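User: My collaborator sent over this chain with a note saying "see what the structure looks like." That's all I know about it. Can you take a look?
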Amino acid sequence: MPARALLCFLLLQPLLAAELGLKTNRTFVIDYEGDQFLKDGKPFRYISGSIHYSRIPRFYWKDRLLKMRMAGLNAIQTYVPWNFHEPVPGMYRFSGDYDLEYFLQVAQEVGLLVILRPGPYICAEWDMGGLPAWLLEKQSIVLRSSDDDYLEAVDKWLGVLLPMIKPHLYENGGPIISVQVENEYGSYFNCDFIYLRHLEKVFRQHLGKNVVLFTTDGADDDLLTCGALQGLYATVDFGAGGNITEFFGYQRKFEPKGPLVNSEFYSGWLDHWGEKHQKVPTEGVVNSLTDMLSRGANVNLYMFIGGTNFGYWNGANSPYAPQPTSYDYDAPLSEAGDLTEKYFALRKAIGKFEKLPEGLIPPSTPKIAYGKVAMKQINTVQGALNVLCPAGPINSTFPLTFVQVKQYFGFVLYRTTLPKNYIEPVRLSSVDNGVRDRAYVSVNGVPQGILERNKVFAINITGEAGDTLDLLVENMGRINYGKDNNDFKGLISNITLDSDILTGWLIYPLNMEDAVQQDLNSSDYSDHSNLTLPSFHVGQFSIPSGIPDLPQDTFIKFPNWTKGQVWINGFNLGRYWPTQGPQVTLYVPRNLLVTSAPNNITVLELERSPCDSQEKCFVEMVDTPVIDGPVPPKKKKEGQ
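Assistant: Without extra context I'll predict from the sequence alone. Here is the result:
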């Protein structure tokens, strides 16, 4: 070795040794005899809160994490949604709003440890529980099992994800103290221990032998029997108001020694379209949290901030009930990151057990009512097909599902012709409840009605031989929990007309995201009077430039609109459905807005808009959210 190189090497030795020593001294382990965790050799208890980076713009990650730290939390818990990062096989997204590593870095910067839940299945009221829909291209695949096709995809994904997070493990200088394997597997029908063993082996292979791996299941013998596995620390989840001694007693049956852990202590609950907004009283949450902390338990509040199901990311439960765009969850921090009464009550309770951090709590962000925005109808979906599906349709004798045409979200238009004259109304129906999830039916551009999963199985139509029959099918979110998360979308069975099976379909996968960036009016659209066909509407509003702190957050409201999708400056904000409730407004974070040019709003109204010739139509930008609006009374199923 040259003398100069040798000198540099000798000078660097103390620094390298110090760095290696730091990493060696950073440990997070389970102390079974002491019924506790040990962090760097000292007893440690985490008080954590769930936050999903995929539901919050990167712009606001630091704001939300600081508020969580100032509430007295010393850790956060987050899921990694596989489908969020790998939308098509082999294409990975890890930048911008998808930058998981940056999120972990920000958490560490504000003084929060991380409990990571990378799945591969996460539930989370997220589309298909985080599993990519393209897995279903192999129709016989058995999800969450030792099925070879499933394991091959899982191994490839984890081979990308886990090496990425390894440098962020606590022992390597990062914030991650523990990693969950799968999620609530005991609630799945399969009970495949070969699958769990395989996952444990893969996690150890990539993350090493020292990281704490754990499972989470409901506090129940049967759930833990199929969800727990020796070598993975078994934790439980439960909400407020129950028998805490009994709940932790279930964990003790599977983990006689070690720390008590409630991995999901429910601070609120989830919503469904058409059902009342769920609320969990603050007093009950505080009382149960206080009880658990007094026992020395480790607790994660699910959710501490819920956030938003932007785009098409909402999931659904069985029997089919999709979740709305808001994932507010009645959490201590609102969907928009606002401080609530529940936030301060929980902070006070935590302060009785842990020293609260000093300093100011970041305030709720200002909201501005920018007012009414005039909208105009520019095109129907059928009129814009050349922009929505520039490659043209796929020909098929029988209908194909979304995944068969590689359309994983949004909408597909199915088109055929009537085989003969139907002067009198005849029954159009889907075989075996085969519309997934909602089909807007028209004949020669005249709306006929709506077929809907589990609700409307048949409608009556009329027409002549050769007339064009269109079914615009909306995927309203895949089932995220239970045995039915292999949730195929589109027309998954044949359509019959007066008992005849319809054939000769033209199938148009619709690329809404690219089309919204283009001129949707540059097409063969001719009928501006038809308000009941699914149609696009556009409007603009300006925010003054040169004024400090503008733009600010706002909410968009849809007076007299029915159901659809909305984009702000090309960003897919999510679904609106005020006629169903409980959500009436959609959250618009400030990072989507600009002062340098007019802000563009594009609305796809699927049923009926207020944009007729007698009345000007508008959406309204308001400063107060409404996620607790009225819901319609329950109706009996039709068409049976």
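A starting point for your reply to your collaborator: The mean pLDDT is 94.
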